[in-house]
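From the pipeline queue, job 12 of 40. The input is one protein chain; the requested action is below.

Action: predict structure.
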Amino acid sequence: MRKDSMDLAGVVGMVVFANVLAFNQVTIKFTNAGFSPVFAAGVRSGLALLVLGLWVLLTGRKITGLRATLWPGLLLGLVFSSEFLFLFTALDMTSVSRASVVFYSMPVWLAAIAHFVLPGERLSARRALGLVLAMAGVALALSDPQSRGAGDLRGDVLAVLASLSWAGIALIVRLTKVSTLPPEGQLFWQITVSAVVLTGLAPLFGPLLREVDLLSLFGLGYGTLVASMGFLFWLRVMTIYPASDIASFSFLSPVMAVAFGWLIFDEPVGIKFLGALGLVAVGVVLINRRSRKRVKPVENGRPPG
């Protein structure tokens, strides 16, 4: 049933979901301890494809339109592959806190690019302010000397590339025939192509296995569910509540990811870094918060994370 505003159930659901996505950054760290990052990303996509198949089988849903979207679908899958190649490798090099602040700045890059390439997406004064604040926050976070000791510049750069790839996914969904696919179809292209591409490339990045243990297997399983059922949950929520209300919760994931990094890995989070995180959060809210009449139902192509 379509609703005009977010109710208590919606708020609780989005808060829980934001935490689920934030914890995913932690579980990628767990997974990387047992598997090489690129191999882990490919295996996760392969397992997510199995989960999607079971979902389609049990619910009786049909994935239609795949043949008509072959080329844009392949492009979508390739960009998705690059996103997770960059993200998994970034989290192998830098801290959860730094990677998350950079990665979840995706709306900044999307808003800047969309201003030039998408009709009706020109930056308003409010969205331009949000873009400036969020970019300032990212710069401040990366320059923070306290957190920099726990990170790595190479990982930070890879997190930027992952964020840009995520923005690319959103643009492909908006500009090509992929937008006509049901949620299961969009997910099919992303995880099918990435399963093949990433597992194929994995041997080029070193040994596939590291020290596999229960924690790394848990991380792989958790990520599989987030990559499959998380996407479907997001699209389901988008059919019930206004997209502008849902987008307002996007700031929670980077905030909680930083909290999880501090709590689980004892990552340094000083006052300067918290201020940078606040700037990013406020900027993302300003960028995403728009008139309900103008918000597209699937703005980012998939949930954030």
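Job complete. Residues 292-300 have pLDDT under 50 and may be disordered.
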